[in-house]
Amino acid sequence: MLALLLALTAPQGGSLTIGFGAAGSVKIDGLTPWYDERVYHDPPLMSPRGDAAALRFCHDFAKYQPCTVYLAQPGQPVQTLKNSNVQRLLWTGDGQYLIGAGANTVRLWNLSAGGRAAVPYPVLTGKQRSVSQIERLWFRDRDLCVAMSSEVFGPNGGYATGRLTTTTRYALPTLQPLTVTTLEGSKKEAECRPSTSSALWP
């Protein structure tokens, strides 16, 4: 795994090459040249099986989507994942699915670049409104846990009236919400509560 992570050629002239050991390498073209300081990418995130890699490439240009994720697999064309302006990436343990988290949306893609999305919400009372930010992703008994923090506002907006932390547990790969736990007035992360209806990925 470490060797695969290091098998990376820095972008030159708008391209980048990822090595997959004996399986060969994959070249990603069409990237903005690396010498522009307003462009950056994360190290490739290899799947647990080592047969795919996700590369998050970001721009600081108004005319571009801020970040794009590319899916590279030996012997196959590079795929640009739709709606991939995410801040975090995570492979499932079996390497079948890639999970991404944006500011307030969770996305899941398979190895054919097909995807689905879910938006976690805090439990609110009355006519409250909220602005939320996803803070963390992790697995629990093969389900996905998503923790987020929220600023709460009254029905007419104005100043924030409180703070919530919420953790939603999703079944994989459906992204069906199983449980939602919200804590009021606390910076402590809400518990990812179990569910007897939890689904398992293949």
Which terms summarize this structure?
202 residues, mainly beta, Nuclear Transport Factor 2, Chain: A, 2 domains, four-stranded antiparallel beta sheet, 48% strand, WD40 repeat protein, WD40/YVTN_repeat-like_dom_sf
Largest sheet: 5 strands, antiparallel
Summed up, the domain count is 2
Number of continuous helical runs: 1
Radius of gyration: 19 Å
Ends apart, CA distance between termini: 23 Å
Task: Give the amount of beta strand, in percent.
Answer: over 45%
Low-confidence stretches: 1-12, 197-202
Protein name: WD40 repeat protein
Organism: Deinococcus budaensis
InterPro entries: WD40/YVTN_repeat-like_dom_sf
Can you put this structure into words, describing what you see?
This protein is mostly beta strands and 202 residues long. It has one helix and 16 strands. Strands 4, 5, 6, 7 and 8 form a five-stranded antiparallel β-sheet that branches. Strands 9-10-11-12 form a four-stranded antiparallel β-sheet, with no helix packed on it.
